[in-house]
Amino acid sequence: MGKIILTGDRPTGKLHLGHFVGSLCQRVQLQNSGEFEKIFIMIADAQALTDNADNPEKVRQNIIEVALDYLSCGIDPAKSTIFIQSMVPELTELAFYYMNLVTVARLERNPTVKSEIVMREFGKSIPVGFYTYPISQASDITAFRATTVPAGADQEPMIEQTREIVHKFNSIYGPTLVEPEILLPSNCVCQRLPGTDGKAKMSKSLGNCIYLSDSAEDLRKKVMSMYTDPNHIRVEDPGSIEGNCVFTYLDAFSTPDHFAQFLPDYASLDELKAHYKSGGLGDVKVKKFLYAVLQEMLEPIRARRKEYEQDIEGVYDILKKGCEVARAEAAETLNMVRNSMKINYFDDMDLIRKQSEMYKAAK
Ligand code: ATP
Ligand code: MG
């Protein structure tokens, strides 16, 4: 059996550097590796609605933004199927069956959902759809018989939940579903990139993002006002690297070549860190370097985005075709699921014959 990828993003905003290092750039590499039989990339609008039910316009407007970000980063529609979740209603039906295989207590234990509930200040008013989105995610993954899910560390509990559902389904109804594996970025800092405010995760919902589509000027402003070490006041003060997100970003994005190109006084990031820690290196110098590194990476992405922005109809066309391909694939799995669960009453001649004979015999 060939390897299949399913991954995606919620259209709650444009994509940011966290998405890029956590999942997007890995997707492009995997796509171009030729190792995967099929690749599905989902714009998770139905999932976005679970905590944006009162703002469907936000979700609607951001579908194109996410699609533009994908294409400008190098997702190639000839190699990867980009589709919109709600356009594949088979996913909803699968989720409805999977709900019977998961307990409320199990949902309560999901650490990512727990922290998102706190972050969104839901209190006791958690929308049921939001609470159960890990189940819906299990149907997204299994519908495409995905073996591999490239994602950030926040997705680990979702993949674990999916594996449990697959296991339970297969043990009750017979081998049907495929158990997926998460593929985390190998660089640890990329698994959960912090926000520019130093908060644990860069997230659209927290407003602490550098977006892939930010202008060079916005990028400069955001980098120059990034959170560093609050005790590093004068240049000569010793500074701390831990929790200093300028250095975390350098861990994620800088290479030795960048030093040769933009900061030849230092041979490596280790040297720069050592100088910062011992004192005598100002934040501004480090931030200017980070800006140069990010600017070099983002400039071609921005330029490609500008081109796609001039062909919005073409982008919708890509999405529409992707939805058709995805729907056919999910329908096949749903068929298998229905057969395994014996929810195939009209196709089951044996059932009809036996019941008919039983009632005739009892007459
Ligand atoms: P929202 O705040 O609406 O949940 P988000 O910024 O968390 O948005 P998602 O669409 O939920 O983004 O996440 C999409 C993918 O990007 C997931 O695979 C997730 O792991 C990854 N991702 C998101 N933020 C980060 C981050 N800061 N670091 C690493 N990966 C991330
Ligand atoms: Mg999220």
Domain tally: 2
User: Stretches where pLDDT falls below 50 for ≥5 residues?
Assistant: none
**What's the story with the biggest beta sheet?**
3 strands, parallel
Helix-strand makeup class: mainly alpha
Shape: elongated
Taking Cα atoms only, what radius of gyration do you get, to the nearest Å? Answer: 24 Å
The mean pLDDT is 95
CATH architectural arrangement of the largest domain: 3-Layer(aba) Sandwich
CATH homologous superfamily of the largest domain - what is it?
HUPs
| Bound ligands, named by name, code or SMILES | adenosine-5'-triphosphate, magnesium ion
Return the CATH topology of the largest domain.
Rossmann fold
**DSSP strand content:** 5-15%
Count all strands and give the number.
5
Instruction: Specify the number of helices.
Output: 16
Which series of helices and strands comes N to C?
A: EHEHHEHHHHHEHEHHHHHHH
CATH class of the largest domain: Alpha Beta
Features:
single chain; 363 residues; mainly alpha; Rossmann fold; Tyrosyl-Transfer RNA Synthetase; 2 domains; two-stranded parallel ribbon; 5 strands; binds adenosine-5'-triphosphate; binds magnesium ion
Tell me the layout of helices and strands.
Elements: E1 3-9, H1 17-33, E2 36-43, H2 45-49, H3 56-73, E3 81-84, H4 90-98, H5 104-108, H6 111-119, H7 128-131, H8 133-143, E4 148-150, H9 156-173, E5 181-183, H10 216-224, H11 245-253, H12 256-262, H13 269-278, H14 283-309, H15 312-341, H16 349-362
Parallel strand pairs: 1-2, 2-3, 4-5
The structure holds adenosine-5'-triphosphate and magnesium ion.
Adenosine-5'-triphosphate (ATP) is lined by residues 9-10, 12, 18-19, 22-23, 151-152, 154-155, 191-193, 201-205.
